[in-house]
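hey all, quick one before standup. I had two proteins in the batch that finished overnight and I want to keep them in one place so we stop losing track of which output belongs to which input. First protein below, input sequence then structure tokens straight from the run.
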Amino acid sequence: MRPPLAPLDGRIDRFDLTVGTAVEFLRGTWPELQEVRFEIGAMPTFDATDEVPRWHLDHDRARIVLFRLPIERLLPPGHDDGAHRRMAIESAVFRAAAEYVGREPWDLGGHDH
């Protein structure tokens, strides 16, 4: 017997799951992210002259918008597999969050300098 609904597109699910896992980790490490909403958008609006942004920070509304298509598609040749994609997604989440709170992405100790 077949399930009544086709499964959702796996790549989008994996993206959301990877973002969610990274966000939970960061919230446990950087308390200032507790109230920040992480949202996922498909594509940013940007000028053709600019580099394609991978995220948008909105301090007024306490939110970080991650753009799925640039994060997934701007991988170096030969790196378009599950492991590299997951690392690219996690890296974007960490870098966006670090930029939001004014820290370095590798400063995951959760302490002030």
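OK second protein, same deal, sequence then tokens:
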Amino acid sequence: MTEYAWFGALCDDDYEFLGVPDETLRSSWSHCRDIVLRAEANGFDNVLLPSGYSLGIDATSFASAIAVETKRIRLLLAVRLGELVVPQLARQIATLQQIADGRLVINAISSDLPGETMSSEDRYQRTTESITVLRRLLAGKRVDFDGRFISAHIDAPRIAVDAPHDPVIYFGGLSEAARECAAQSCDVYLMWPDTTAQMTEVMKEMSSRAAAYGRILRYGWRSHVIVRETEREARAAAERLLSRLDAATGSSIRAKSLDSTSAGVARQSELRASADADGFIERHLWTGVGRARSGAGIAIVGDPDQVTAKIREIRDAGVGTFILSGYPHLAECDLFARFVLPQLRADEARVA
């Protein structure tokens, strides 16, 4: 069954006009709570709770609160592994899993400590070691581990012993070190938007890497979406989204991101540079969001049938998880749920 997830916008990433801060859309408990509750009401399977150091509100604190206000939707908690002591993190996740009644899943972020800069190779090696130790502790087992960066000789916390589980871990990254980490460690390999042909090559290569470790990966697509009743209206909405952005502001926003020099961001920039005059690399893949956002910077743009067809194309290529977002997030969540999600659910009903 394909998973359709929405985006929680905890990192001050909600706008009516990209690059123009709006106090009513700024990350807060009340605003982000409304997004998650709307995503659940609209039938999404999961919601990404992103995490940043300098922007927005704390994802883990938010997850503990929203878990008791939701009943069905899964919570994809972004965890910045470089900032946390792994045994403490294991106890925290096990506790959150109890609060969420088993609905918590993890988006592992290979982060530096704030103010720290490690090489990509070292950082991803530390991430691999962190996930290895974390999985064992959450399984309720003792760890005796000495790696290059992580050393742990400790019993699992009582809460993990009482309710052991193997966490589902989402992870993304395009560099050689990131791919190797993903092949060894994650369950769902997340990709930022690209052409279907390029995405297929990445999945083929990653499946080969994972097989060398006796593992099988699932795949996810993280992008924005702009859907309207007609393609003309969708393109007009895309143009309006950028209508108050100047180049200097966009550059400043991108430069502030902690991942602004990553291989994935470089690929998004390359795609943006190759787009047509209106910012499209394909008829329904628009790179304009990347002018004011580091990371995933491409949106699927079109009418309901066009957006649905593009998602079907990506799904049929092997992607089983879609993590989507749109601006403003409440409004676009409703539009996607009204125009596209019923068609995708109907596909699943026919297969069943």
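Flagging for whoever picks this up: Residues 125 and 321 are 26 Å apart (CA to CA). The first helix runs from residue 29 to 41.
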